[in-house]
Amino acid sequence: MSNIEIYGTIGPACAEEKMLEEMFRSGMTGIRLNLSHAELEECGEWTRMIQAAAQAAGVQPKLLIDLQGPELRVGNLKQPLEFLDGAEAALQSKECQEAEGNPSPATPDKETAALRSRENPEAIPLPEIVFSSLQPGQAILLDDGKIQLTVTDTEGNTAHCKVTRGGMLQSRKSIALPGIRLNLPVLTESDKRNIRSAKSHGVTGVMLPFVRSAEDIKDLKRELHKAQAGHLEIFAKIENMDGVNHLEELLPFADQIVIARGDLGSSMPLWELPLIQAQIAQTCQKAGKPFMVVTQMLATMEQHPVPTRAEMSDIFLAVIEGAASVMATGETAVGKYPREVIKYLSNTVKAAKSYSRDTSTKIL
């Protein structure tokens, strides 16, 4: 079994040079920069810190930029909104809200946000393209499915919903419409700018979200070549059933397949996700294509210094199934214990590799 890459995600919780150095020393070999919320040119201080921390730790780091791609996200909220089970929620085109000049002030604390959301409920801003597909009964999943709404009625670029699974919603969280396929562009203008800046920031790979077919990856390749960045690795994120169904045609064009379980789990009954993960892993192994497993690998460690036993087993089995890379996301970006996350991730990978070498056993 070859070396397995261990990725964290940079964010406010670990954006300090000493912390990043300790994470590299604990086994982190690469880091992800999520550009759904910022542009690469705005992250120069972070990319400088990553390179300096890795050099101090004696590591040649992999730096992946995660593009916006053909994904849907909630717009900017005035404050985080708490939605209670059974309550009503309003949706509005974020383009309409922006035209009205709604401000997006600083995020208050959670308790204050919850109180404000009850006193002054506001419409959730969604991309305009969503509304043409909304019909009564349509499910809407927000923030990797943590929150679920059911549409009750629509009118133009507004819709009313019932909250079927509540929670606290923050700006820029993901949107999924089970059963609906929207014709979204592969790359945004922001993506193209970020690709042009990639070389100057030491980027080694590009993650393309919501890959639907080989044509999506070909579009990215063309943009990389235009930016004289054709050497960058392409990580194709499988996040919906289009990607699953077209997996074999993607393989020749991607350097690595990413089993991105957040949105992927929102596109099916959740109990089917482990089977889909196993099938993707098996297909990649048969084709000799490296794959990554990501999302909620150590989710409880956003709040707790020790993971669950189930999380340890999840990481171990991902490695036994043949994963070439594993990645932490929110656990290191916004969690309380980014250093400890990498320690548990790295040590569990080592244990799984040792087991695999000793037994030459694969669980598929």
Question: In a nutshell, what does this entry contain?
Answer:
The chain is built from 14 helices and 16 strands. It has helices spanning 17-25, 44-57, 94-99, 110-119, 128-131, 189-197, 214-226, 241-245, 247-250, 261-266, 273-287, 309-320, 330-333, 338-359; strands at 5-9, 30-34, 62-66, 81-83, 88-93, 124-126, 139-142, 147-155, 158-165, 167-169, 175-176, 205-208, 233-238, 256-260, 291-294, 325-327. Helix 1 (17-25) packs across helix 2 and helix 12 (309-320) crosses helix 14.
Describe the structure.
With 364 residues, the protein is of the alpha/beta class. The protein has 2 domains: 5-71 and 184-359, Alpha-Beta Barrel (TIM Barrel); 81-176, M1 Pyruvate Kinase, Domain 3. The protein contains 14 helices and 16 strands. The protein has helices spanning 17-25, 44-57, 94-99, 110-119, 128-131, 189-197, 214-226, 241-245, 247-250, 261-266, 273-287, 309-320, 330-333, 338-359, and strands at residues 5-9, 30-34, 62-66, 81-83, 88-93, 124-126, 139-142, 147-155, 158-165, 167-169, 175-176, 205-208, 233-238, 256-260, 291-294, 325-327. Strands 1-2-3-12-13-14-15-16 form an 8-stranded parallel barrel, surrounded by 4 helices. It is globular.
